[in-house]
Amino acid sequence: MRHITIVAGFGLLALAACGQNRDEDAVRDAMQEVNVIDEAGLSDVMLTVADPEEAVAYFSRALRENPGRVDLERNYAKALIRAGRNTEAVSAWEKVTANPQSTADDRVELAGAYIRTNQWPQARGALDAVPPTHETFDRYRYEAMVADAQEQWDKADSYYEIATGLTTTPAGVLNNWGFSKLTRGDYGAAERLFAEALRHEPDMFTAKNNLVMARGAQRNYDLPVVPMTQQERAQLLYTLALAAIKQNDIAIGRGLLEDAVETSPTYFEEASRALDALGTT
């Protein structure tokens, strides 16, 4: 009986040790999960509100400590894009896509990096490597831009239209589409697209300026009825003036330049210089 009791005691001790090990494993697993959550949260902060260069340094350091982790490689590439270091971002995205754990989205991002560095054939190749079933806003936005660069206008229009339908914030792609139409000389279509972009994002100055260029190209020198600050109004008058002068409507251009100078709340050097140049002709 005593032997049995001793064995039972050892059994209880073993069970207790087993239970303790399980508890320690559970705690360790829980801590790992917390660390993953904390790391993911910090990564999000670095890619959104942190200083861009600080984010680059953070992910570069994380990669040195954890080489080969595709999530860190991906975030490092994104941070480089955010910091405007596009040439370096190309190399970073190439490294990501070479990783066996890379995704179709990574290839789309690589195409975007190529576009930012004007490497259009490489962008075409990166997009061709994306499965046709991968239908995302960024994929079609980049497809449109590459088609534009290759002057494949029908394809560009089709891709822009698809991209517009795949986002709730289409102002940017509508502005790009409008600029494509502007460069082709389809000024009426460009004007409509810029106006639509402004309906979605009334504060987008680039679209306002492009809208004025489209109108000026049609010899419509009236400012569009869109929200604008006094400084924006001065800049748009200047853009209209240049459009008029380009089309040899010199008197109209001079008047618009004078309006721009008078409207601007601060000294408008470019408009004043252009006005002086006209005065000597």
From TrEMBL:
Stored InterPro entries: CellSynth/LPSAsmb/PSIAsmb, TPR-like_helical_dom_sf, TPR_rpt
SUPFAM superfamilies, per database record: TPR-like
TPR repeats (start-end): 171-204
Keyword Membrane: no
Keyword Repeat: yes
Domain of life per record: Bacteria
Keywords from the UniProt entry: Repeat, TPR repeat
Gene3D superfamilies the record matches: Tetratricopeptide repeat domain
Protein name listed in UniProt: Flp pilus assembly protein TadD
Record organism: Rubellimicrobium mesophilum DSM 19309
